[in-house]
C-alpha cells in the first residue's frame, strides 16, 4: 500500500504512544495522558521507541495490498490481508515463537491502521490563511 510519509509517521507515533501507555502505571491509573507521557520523554528516548517499532511495523504496512481509499476515509483491510502481509515479512523464526510474533505484529499493524488520519485529496488541499 502506498502511504504518505505523514500517514506513516502518525501511525507509528500513535502505536508508540499506545505501547508506552500500556507499560506506564500513571497512565493506566488515569494520572496522566498518553500525550503527557510522550512529551515527558526526551528526543533520544522517543527515537529508540520509534526505531524499534518501525522495524516491525513499516515493512508490514508497505506490504499491505493496494486498496482504493475514498477522500475522508481510512484504508480498510481484512484480518487475512494483514496476517498475510505480516507473515510475508517475517524472518526465520519457527514454531511457537513465530506464531507469537505474528500475533503481536498483526495487533500492532491493526493499531497502526486505526491511528492513520483520514485520507485527504491532494487536489482540494486547503492552506490556512496564516500561511
Helix/strand-derived class?
Answer: mainly alpha
Indicate the low-confidence ranges by residue numbers.
Answer: none
How much helicity do the residues have? 55-70%
Mean pLDDT: 88
Helix and strand pattern: HHHHHH
**Span between termini:** 31 Å
Report the total helices: 6
The dominant shape is globular
**Number of domains in the coordinates?**
1
The biggest beta sheet reads: none
What percent of residues are in strands? under 5%
Radius of gyration: 17 Å
Total number of strands: 0
Would you write up a description of this structure?
This protein is an all-alpha fold. The protein has one domain (5-115). 63% of the residues lie in helices and 0% in strands. The longest helix has 21 residues, at 43-63.
Summed up:
By secondary structure, this protein is mainly alpha-helical.
Indicate the topology.
Elements (H helix, E strand, L loop, with lengths): L4 H19 L1 H4 L5 H7 L2 H21 L15 H10 L6 H21 L16
Helix pairs in contact: 1-3, 1-4, 1-6, 4-5, 4-6, 5-6
Keywords:
single chain; about 130 residues; mainly alpha; 6 helices; about 65% helix; globular
